[in-house]
Amino acid sequence: MMNCVILDDEPAAIQLLSRYVEKVPFLYLVKTFEDPIEAMLYFQQNCVDLLFLDINMPDINGIEFSKILSTKAKIIFTTAHSEFALQGFDVNATDYLLKPFSFERFFKACCRVFDNLLVSTDELIKVSDYIFVKSGTSYLKIYYHDIVYVESRRNNLIIQTKGEEILIYGSLVDFIKKLPPILFIRIHKSFLINKELIKEANIEEVILSHEQKKYSIPIGYVYKGAFLEFLKNKSLN
User: Which 3 state secondary structure label does DSSP give 136?
Assistant: First the structure.
């Protein structure tokens, strides 16, 4: 899961980007800004993986903002002015989106950032391949590869592992942040699944399989487009 921020002086543009972000399973929108100064202060105190940055803004444009930004966040520029494209790449932007852009174009840009993240995440997994969760008064050690799916129910999470079902208190959004995105994908507002255990899928549901057990997980409307794109990228035809 990648934490992302939107900086754009146009409220309509922020609303569109926010809707697009909601459709991408591996993105989590933590903040939006219309004022570059407020955004700069936020970046000084918080860790962000991805910034959607408008170029043509008053007071300070996106190009100058990116040059003084002291962060490792990846940047995807968004603007209605094509003449800024080369300048955007000069400051090592990951991608450049020319307004108006489709969700498909937006998703491809996000996947490019995500693929780069997977390389570093894969190295991290080699060092640490487990997580501790608090269940009752005990902390339980769960290996990532043992998680079949995670379901959100009100204020609780049900972690279905290959051997048992574990109930913990918490939100799916917070739990996703602690998991390696190379292994998991969100396909519903209430479900996160293990990619490695996908047996088959259609436009309505995903079948997860482990040994003789099978689990049917619904695909949420908001996540359907991004998940089908994920399947398409992994398909031979």
Answer: coil
The CATH topology of domain 2-125 is Rossmann fold (3.40.50)
Tokens read off for 52? 């959607």
Alpha carbon separation from 145 to 10, 115, 125 (Å, rounded): 43, 20, 11
Q: Block means of pLDDT (10 residues each) for the chain, length 237 residues?
A: 90 94 87 91 84 88 84 84 56 79 90 70 56 90 94 94 93 84 86 93 92 92 81 72
pTM of the model: 0.57
Q: How many CA atoms lie within 13 A of 37 on its CB side?
A: 2
Within the chain, residue ranges assigned H as helices are 11-23, 36-45, 62-68, 85-90, 103-127, 172-176, 221-234
Q: Where are the domains of the chain?
A: 2-125, 128-234
Superfamily of 128-234 according to CATH:
LytTr DNA-binding domain (2.40.50.1020)
